[in-house]
From TrEMBL:
Domain of life: Bacteria
Sections of the chain in a coiled coil: none
Family as reported in the entry's similarity comment: Belongs to the short-chain dehydrogenases/reductases (SDR) family.
Gene3D superfamilies: NAD(P)-binding Rossmann-like Domain
Protein name, entry field: Beta-ketoacyl-ACP reductase
Pfam families documented for this protein: adh_short_C2 (PF13561)
Organism: Paenibacillus glycanilyticus
């Protein structure tokens, strides 16, 4: 048994980010052709495109603003003209900002999180799910966060956006399930990425003391969960919020 995405086309938003690039490479290693969305880092997108093509897969890098419906529509047209029908959507992009208390957080940060978490997902669904319905097959995967369950101080804007996103995914899963389209979320914990491997790990003792597995997860471990959900091995899983956090957060029944 193995994860086989041969013949599939996957779109990853925020593909040039620390996690996005590992997800993109991993899905390509499983056999998928990859559409790489980026917002501004054209050089990294070109580098990642070359990496994926070196794996023997087709790839295209496309700039877009995921918070704008017309930009997502143009993205769809570009992807389909280059690679064809999109079978797998991974909504990974999110606006970055400085975290502070509710009383001090600028109002525009709440708006940016709503736009990049909730509305990105809505725009992607409107653009790509209709063709999945026609094919009676598809995978729609969102990158959420353990923070949505933690609700710690200074997390408010991020949590608000991601909890809103959670509602969209749960409803969407019920709306499109009859077409054999699965809709799921992967919720990473505090993840070790290439940046930290290069620059050194942040102090994490206070974090890992509460993690049952007593360590931080890696970007590859997050990508592994995404690859599983994108595959036929996960064909009967939908509407799930799956923490990949070493047990740091545990949804209850």
């Amino acid at each position: 048994m193995r994860i086989d995405l041969s013949g599939k086309v996957a779109l990853i938003t925020g593909a040039t980010g620390e996690l996005g690039r590992v997800i993109a490479r991993s899905l390509a290693e499983c056999g998928a052709d990859i559409a790489l969305h980026y917002h501004s880092n054209e050089a990294k997108a070109a580098e990642l495109k070359s990496t994926i093509e070196a794996l023997g897969r087709r790839a295209v890098a496309i700039k877009a603003d995921v918070t704008k419906q017309d930009s997502i529509a143009a993205l769809k047209q570009s992807v389909e003209s280059s690679l064809g029908h999109v079978d797998i959507v991974v909504a990974n992009a999110v606006v970055q900002y400085k975290w502070t208390s509710v009383l001090e957080q600028p109002a525009e940060d709440y708006a940016s999180q709503f736009e990049s978490c909730v509305m990105q997902s809505v725009h992607l669904a409107k653009a790509f799910i209709p063709s999945m319905i026609e094919k009676k097959s598809g995978r729609f995967i969102g990158i959420n966060t353990e923070c949505a369950m933690q609700n710690f101080p200074t997390q408010s804007a991020y949590v608000a956006g991601k909890r809103g996103m959670d509602g969209i995914y749960r409803v969407l899963a019920k709306e499109v399930g009859e077409h054999q389209i699965t809709v799921n979320q992967v919720a990473p914990g505090w993840t070790i990425s290439e940046r930290e491997r290069t620059n050194g790990l942040d102090e994490s003792a206070n974090y890992i003391k509460n993690v049952p597995l007593k360590r931080r997860g890696t970007d590859q471990e997050i990508a592994n969960a995404v690859a599983f959900l994108a595959s036929d091995l996960a064909s009967f899983i939908t509407g799930a919020y799956i923490p990949v956090s070493g047990g740091n957060v545990m949804p209850t029944i």
